[in-house]
Amino acid sequence: MSLKKHLCPPGHANMGLGLLAMAGFMAYGFLLIYLRDFAPGKEAWVAASASGAHFEAKLAHVHGNLLAFLNLVIGYLLIQLPYPPKQARAISVLALLGLLMPIGILMEVLWHVPPLPVVIGALSMTISVAWLGVLTLTQAKNPAFSKNH
């Protein structure tokens, strides 16, 4: 049995996991709103929110939704346009690894995990976006790629 049979085509996992990550980080945003506006002791939370763990918690929320959105865009492009399959798969995986960045930020805040997942996620997403940009520009000369797009 081939592993390929069990993998989503490039782009589909980005769309599905991007939507799930966005839902999760949106829910996390509601928690942050609760802590800021309604929780007992909210004044102390607000006073400490510009630095340290509170600031990092907000970074995780913002970057989580940004990287989830980037996965949606990348997934859509990988599904809609005829990129070379091996490159599309690699870009897809790198974009998904990009979600390690906001997850790593949360792990730092909650469990004091070293920032390695943050760095891996940031580099992976940056490489995937740059690679997809270069690939899109080079593929634009291909008639099959630019037809009706």
Molecular structure report:
- With about 150 residues, the protein is mainly α.
- It has a single domain (about 10-140), classed as Four Helix Bundle (Hemerythrin (Met), subunit A), CATH 1.20.120.
- The chain is about 75% helix and about 0% strand.
- The protein has helices at about 10-35, 40-45, 50-80, 85-95, 100-110, 115-140, 145.
- Helix 1 packs parallel to helix 4 (about 85-95) and helix 3 (about 50-80) runs antiparallel to helix 5 (about 100-110).
- The two termini are about 35 Å apart.
Topology:
Elements lengths: L11 H26 L4 H6 L4 H29 L4 H13 L2 H12 L4 H24 L3 H4 L3
Features:
single chain; 149 residues; mainly alpha; Four Helix Bundle (Hemerythrin (Met), subunit A); elongated
